[in-house]
Amino acid sequence: MRSLSRGLLALLVSASMAAPASATCFRGINLSGAEFNGRGARINVDYTYPSQKIIDYFASKKLNTVRLPILWERLQPVLNQPFDPDELGRLKTSVDQMRKAGLGVIIDPHNFATYNDIQIGTRVVSYADFADFWRRVAAEFGNRDGIYFGLMNEPFHMPATQWLPGAQAAIDAIRETGAKNLILVPGVEWTSAREWAKFSAAEMIKVTDPGDNFAYEFHQYLDSDFSGTHAACDRAADALKAIGDVTEWMRTNKRRGFLGEFGGSGQPECLKGIADMVGKMNAAKDVWLGWTYWVAGDWWPATEINNITPTKDGDRPQLASLLGPGLDDKSCAGF
Q1: 300-333, pLDDT tens digit by residue?
Q2: Per-residue model confidence (pLDDT) at position 23
Q3: N or C: which end of the chain has fewer CB within 10 A?
Q4: pLDDT < 50: residue spans in the chain
């Protein structure tokens, strides 16, 4: 029965993947673990960077990018002060491992627009504090080939009017160092594509980049409340519509986008939904740079519904929904 189920799933996925001749530039995975727990956590006890084994596994597939979640407080224990040398060393080692494996790396402070659970744009955590963090990141990783800057994971419970000045301050700080790396700029409401027009678009359209090399980051799940925490993907059609809506917004406004998180379980409707979303972005390469699936990682439990860390039996079924046509190197030059 197990092999029969896999065969049926493969047929469903294949039937849904009517993709064009080439795929989006960035096709990747969130390798989670370095953001686990908080201040005072112990390396390889409470949190971990991706192992060489898991890096090599995804490098052996058609994926080419890693979104690497980290924790701001751990890298910079005191605001406006130098990075912790040990943590910076671990981050640099991990980035180097991925680059040697041929994977691009998106550095992602996975903090939900907070530092020690205090929001950016307050008296305690100012916009200048956030800009200082990114100025230091850019000083370490600026202009390195294949390194990209994801400003912040999922700002929420704040209006875009509060988030925009922080994002703009960080962009300006990065460019002041001379770094030309691609910058990914999220909106609010957990960076939801579905909520973009309602909560983010009017303010985030005001983003400016002196380096003229940024894209908006979106996240979009397929389950009942779009959280990615349920096994059923009963809102897959709505998720696909959300991708279509932001596609048209970007075309109208001459902007680019990146899907930083999406995912689903191994249920057939999820596999089809994942493939449909990838196909929709492939068909809109004029505005979509690509995507990173959520999630994989050495410490993620096997029971986690979105987890595509391979098991002893091999690939997870979601991987087949993600794999599409080969990378069009010519059209992706310069990203």
Answers
A1: 999 999 999 999 999 999 999 999 655 555 556 5
A2: 77
A3: N
A4: 1-21
Q: HSE (CB half, 13 Å, CA atoms) of 65?
A: 28
Residue 89 three-state SS:
helix
Domain ranges of the chain: 2-322
pLDDT of 332 reads: 62
pLDDT of 4 reads 31
Give the pair of three-digit tokens for residue 193: 């594509």
In the CATH hierarchy, which fold is given to the domain comprising 2-322? TIM Barrel (3.20.20)
DSSP state, 41?
P
Rounded CA gap, 112 and 131, in Å? 16
What's the rounded Cα separation, in Å, for the pair 81 and 86? 15
SS3 state at 22: coil
Q: How far apart, in whole angstroms, are the C-alpha atoms of residue 23 and residue 272?
A: 17
Report the C-alpha gap between 247 and 313 in whole angstroms: 37
Active-site choice (87, 154, 189, 217): 154
- What's residue 217's pLDDT? 98
Please indicate whether residue 261 is annotated as part of the active site.
yes
Six-digit token string for 269: 């409707």
207 touches 214 (CB < 8 A): yes
Question: Is residue 219 within 8 Å of residue 260, measured between CB atoms?
Answer: yes
Q: What is the pLDDT of residue 326?
A: 53
pLDDT of residue 62: 86
The one catalytic residue in 189, 203, 217, 261 is 261
Q: Is 269 a catalytic residue?
A: no
